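Data availability (excerpt). The following record was deposited with the supplementary files.
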Amino acid sequence: MTSPTQAASGTDPQAFWMHPWEYMPTAHAAQRTVISQAEGIYVQDDTGARMIDGPAGMWCTQIGYGRQEMADAIAAQAVKLSYVNPFALSAGPPAELAQRLAHMAPGAMNHVFFTTGGTTAVETALRFVHYYNNVLGRPGKKHLISLADAYHGSSYLTGMVAGKDRDKSYLDSTMAQVHLLSSVNPKRRPAGMSVEAFCSARVDELEAKILEIGADKVGAFIAEPVQASGGVIVAPDGYFKRAWEVCRKHDVLFIADEVVTAFGRLGHWFASKEVFGVEPDLVTCAKGITSGYLPLGACLVSDRIFDQVAADKARGGSFAHGYTNSGHPVCTVAALKNIEIIEREDLLGNVRALAPHFQERLRSLRDIPLVFDTRGVGLLGCVECTVRGVEHSGLSPEALLAIDVDLGARIDRHCQELGLMLRPIVNQCVFSPPLIITRAQIDEMFDIMREGIVRTLRDIEVELGYTVV
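Predicted structure:
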């Protein structure tokens, strides 16, 4: 048998790239679509097939592909100043971007720490919680509370506050000081319980956990306004704000992870305040900040908590945390140009105008027997499919997972053949198209999605012998 290392010793360069979330039983053997170029909302593979980019890369290509003015701005900055040491020096682009972000922020957040992406932005927020409580003389106030289905990054610390449980990762992912609460997915509420009662139960669970641990020991609660990688889970109306109010009541910092929801995905620069009525203590962002043209992230710190541990209150300490590429001048220029384009083309307004139609077309898929749930907000959506009745068939959890993985892969394959790229997360097809999408393109996307799911339904019934009703 050829080992993965032997396979990678061939001439195909694809065999050398170890991808994120590499499925090790088939390492270097997965048949991934190879993308060769892209323009607007479309990507093209190496066979010449053209597809709508349903997930906008990974929730990030807000302004679409192939923007010449973006390339020109990046190139000009690379020639003018390609790098600056952020530990000892400053530069114009990161300073200007920090000022812009502070003005856009949900509340008074005039302190912007630049990172390399979403994971490092969340890592920064969590480390600031540690710094904050240590400076205040509360070294025991370090417990963190997160949610089931959450995803906050893939470093050691950010991985600890993740709540996704269907990956067999063999990585350490538990820590005594991290506590996961129940899912806030209203579709999973107990039979007979109203959505309003479910919301209250989840808020009560947060407060009960804080009291169980001891408010003097809980440092922060971290939550995404919408749980993107968890399957676009939208908590019941009012949950996000009520959770924030519980945190304020018990002196627990509230971290809003807006890595996906910021920069227009819900029709605003940030979703926390404009959509959910929350002014967090810390906000993380990345992805759409440059529309994926270059890697960049940021952690915004509120004046309320910054002022408690700075100046004469800092006890002589440093926030000894940072990255070689913090505030990279070329990446921050890309972000500035991205913001300029979003403003000039009123892409936030475009999202707000198109979101009702987008969500209506999403809900219309519920009549397909294979569809278990559809959910979304703004230009975020998820179609969760399941073979009904299989969960009661006596199959092992591993066998059930295999069926769900196959289901998602089949839908993805059919949609690609029809001209739409999705992102299957097991049996959930998530999508978040570029913000430049038109109403006609939304209709094209959902027409393809419907046909892809229907074709998968036929596969399940004919090839696997299941009756889906």
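Summary of structural features: The chain has 13 helices and 15 strands.
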